[in-house]
Design goal:
The chain is mostly helical. It has a single domain, classed as Four Helix Bundle (Hemerythrin (Met), subunit A). Helices cover about 80% and strands about 0% of the residues. The protein contains five helices and no strands. α2 runs antiparallel to α3 and α3 runs antiparallel to α4. The longest helix has 27 residues. The mean pLDDT is about 95.
């Protein structure tokens, strides 16, 4: 049972096509960790534009997979990049997003045998 994600939007978008759902899940599991690493790098180097571009890129995926809190937090990260905030202001928010995504990925891998 999914505790860390919700595929309702994915199933609605796909008209319940299991192959399409699997493609979306596979893309999430393979690409989002790399994008998170890029956000972390942008935060570390205070490269706000870099962090923003990757935060903006993953935002729809977080929404699509029902990661509501992570989605709200990625909006905070985007706002932080636009305000060109200090690293310490956003580190905990980023950590929270990362943990939620990691939990969802573990569960997706198990649920979809990836």
């Amino acid at each position: 049972m999914a505790l860390h994600y919700n595929l309702a939007k994915v199933y609605a978008l796909s008209d319940n096509d299991p192959e399409f759902v699997l493609q979306i899940v596979t893309l999430f599991v393979t690409e989002i960790p790399e994008d998170l690493a890029e956000i972390k790098e942008g935060i570390k180097k205070k490269d706000h534009k870099h962090a923003y571009s990757y935060a903006h890129k993953i935002k729809p995926s977080l929404d699509l997979l029902g990661l509501k809190v992570a989605f709200e937090e990625i909006l905070q990260i985007e706002a932080w990049t636009k305000a060109e905030g200090e690293k310490k202001e956003i580190k905990e928010t980023f950590k929270s997003v990362k943990h939620q995504v990691e939990d969802a990925i573990k569960e997706l891998k198990k649920d979809f045998d990836l």
